[in-house]
Amino acid sequence: MEYKIASGHSLTNPNRINYTNGINSTAIFDIIIIIAIITILVIFLWLTIQTIRKRIRIKYANLVFQYSSRYKAITNLNSLYLFNVLEKKYNYRWFVNSKQKYDRFDFRKQFKETVRENPSYFLTISEKAAYNNDLYKKYKNEVIKLPDFSEKNGSRLKYNFKRFSKYEHKICDNELLHPVINPIFECTVRYTSPAGRNSYCNFRSFSSDMIYSLIDEIQKDNKRKDSTAYQRSLMTPTLRYNILKRDGFKCLLCGRSAEDGIKLHVDHIIPVSKGGKTIYSNLRTLCNECNQGKSDKYDSSGVV
Predict the structure, then answer these.
(1) 31-56 burial, b for 16+ CB within 10 Å, e for fewer?
(2) More exposed terminus of the chain, fewer Cβ within 10 Å: N or C?
């Protein structure tokens, strides 16, 4: 029912009921229910498939354990070999506080210092890796002699041989031992600018074989240091006096003596740090000024 007004316009009866919102709400609710049911069915189907696949895996794994001669031979062989347990990768990190230090970062030098702090630890890893490597060569030679994979036997076939063969290959391959024979030492350096806008990262890896080279260098460094300390310890007061007396208590470079207000030193012509010995032929008298100017410099003439 409509009410006419003078202008010719009409107004809808305010008592009229609008069903549009109710219909839309019901449709949306039905759609949500349908989607939920489909989702549940899909999940149920997926879980059912996964359960079936799991049962198949267990079934054929048990068949491999029971009938595969190769699998049994591998497990017997594995029981005879005991490899060292090592990590495949050992990580070492450094953080520097300037871009210049980052650009000039010497990986070999820094890693060498790390090895120097605990050489026995790194040597043990390298020796274990070398042991694994030697033993693994023997192991692989024995694997070659193992029985081959199963062949199809129609007279006693009670399962899908193609599927059995697939699982036999996978299980046997996974059963083979793969020891760590060459662990990697990965060194990483990082730098982040003060404002955090730029970050830099670089890395370098060293093999376990490199450890032997670094330890050899470290041992040589230690021997050289020990030798230097020993040679300097040979400079006794008696030897020092004898050299001063031999040289007339004068500096052999400038000719001055203690009377000229300088101090006299007994100097190694070939510096101890360069392999020089504390013997008469390698010692001379120098004043403090000439000795400081000479420092550790040396040439074959022996003048400087």
Answers:
(1) eeeeeeeeeeeeeeeeeeeeeeeeee
(2) N
The neighbour count for residue 137, using CB atoms within 10 Å, is 10
Tell me how many degrees the CA angle 259-261-263 measures, rounded to the nearest 5. 95
Residue type, 293: G
In whole angstroms, how far apart are CA 220 and each of 67, 116, 215, 266?
A: 59, 12, 9, 28
Which residue is associated with the tokens 């032929």? 281
Structure tokens at 234: 């040979």
Helix, strand or coil, per DSSP, at residue 184 = strand
Whether the per-residue pLDDT at 45 is higher than 70: the answer is yes
The burial class, CB within 10 Å (0-12 / 13-18 / 19+), for 18 is exposed
With beta carbons less than 8 A apart as the criterion, state whether 183 and 208 touch.
Answer: yes
pLDDT band at 223 (very low <50, low <70, confident <90, very high): confident
H or E stretch covering 33:
helix 20-67
Closest C-alpha among 298, 122, 93, 86 to residue 212: 122
pLDDT at 256 over 80: yes
